[in-house]
Specification:
Elements lengths: L5 H4 L5 E7 L5 H13 L4 E5 L10 H12 L4 H12 L6 E4 L2 H7 L1 H10 L4 E3 L9 H10 L2 E2 L2 E2 L7 H5 L6 E4 L15 H9 L6 E4 L5 H4 L7 E4 L1 H9 L5 H13 L3
Parallel strand pairs: 1-2, 1-9, 2-3, 3-4, 4-5, 6-7, 7-8, 8-9
Helix pairs in contact: 2-4, 2-12, 6-7
Length: about 260
């Protein structure tokens, strides 16, 4: 199985990136739900490692973290899950983790495991730019992408942030925490323009995107990211969410057309 690359699947824009927490509602179902996203057309899938104090996440994902923790989540179990996912799909995978689990596992060991499982990138939302040097150097050595986040507060820091951009640049559309929103700021257009002045790495917009009708307003980006909406689907029907996940991803992709 030839695993696809993020740059290849997002090259022509109109991409969709889905997110779920590994082990939610349990590890067996979680594998099926990740694969369902891929089968429905997700271009990239972010797999979250449950964390006890997810500062950037709202209640929907925090509850998913608790469900995954109750299912016995650990970094090693997440890697086992990814190995099972990788047997069934070549979709590009990205890990989303807070820094502490990665540090405890060992930066070198973590990146080596990502390489073995052909996980292309990692997002660590709590790792400040000023503290990235060690991990970024190792990530470059292993050929893994340390995906950078650009927020509405980044402004003058954008040139420094995108110097290290790889995989895709995660444009945070709204201030605050993750979660579905009825109204999403249009200021992200300026962020995408500022990023594109300095890099050809694809720009993907996330935070709050939960409905197909919201997708069209981001036609200036290369992809949209939806996480809380998928997690909510799983929460409502934890034992049998495959069909609903597929329908959601299909509708989000169709909304680009």
């Amino acid at each position: 199985m030839v695993v696809k690359k993020i740059a290849d699947v997002l090259r022509n824009g109109r991409g969709f990136i889905g997110f779920t927490v590994a082990g939610d509602p349990n590890f067996e179902k979680s594998v099926d739900y990740i694969v369902a996203m891929a089968e429905a057309g997700a271009d990239v899938i972010e797999i979250g490692i449950a964390f006890s104090d997810p500062a950037a996440d709202g209640p929907t994902i925090m509850q998913a973290d608790l469900r995954a923790a109750a299912a016995g989540s650990s970094t090693e179990k997440v890697f086992d899950l990814i190995a099972q996912v990788r047997q069934r799909t070549a979709v590009p995978l990205v890990i989303l983790s807070y820094t502490n689990p990665v540090f405890k596992y060992g930066y070198d060991n973590f990146l080596a495991k990502m390489t073995d499982l052909e996980v292309e990138g990692i997002i660590m939302p709590d790792m400040p730019l000023e503290e990235q040097a060690e991990f970024a150097t190792l990530a470059d050595h292993y050929g893994r992408a340390l995906i950078q986040l650009v927020t509405l507060q980044s402004k003058d820091r954008i040139p420094d942030i995108v110097k290290q951009a790889a995989g895709f640049v995660y444009i945070v559309s709204s201030l605050g925490i993750t979660g579905a929103r009825d109204n999403i700021s249009t200021a992200s257009r300026e962020l995408v323009a500022a990023v594109r002045e300095r890099t050809t790495v694809p720009a993907a917009i996330g935070f709050g995107i939960s409905r197909p009708e919201q997708v069209a307003q981001f036609d200036y980006a290369d992809a949209v990211i939806a996480g809380s909406a998928i997690v909510d689907i799983i929460a409502k029907n934890p034992d049998n969410a495959v069909a609903d996940i597929k329908a959601f991803v299909y509708d989000m992709k169709k909304a680009w057309r």
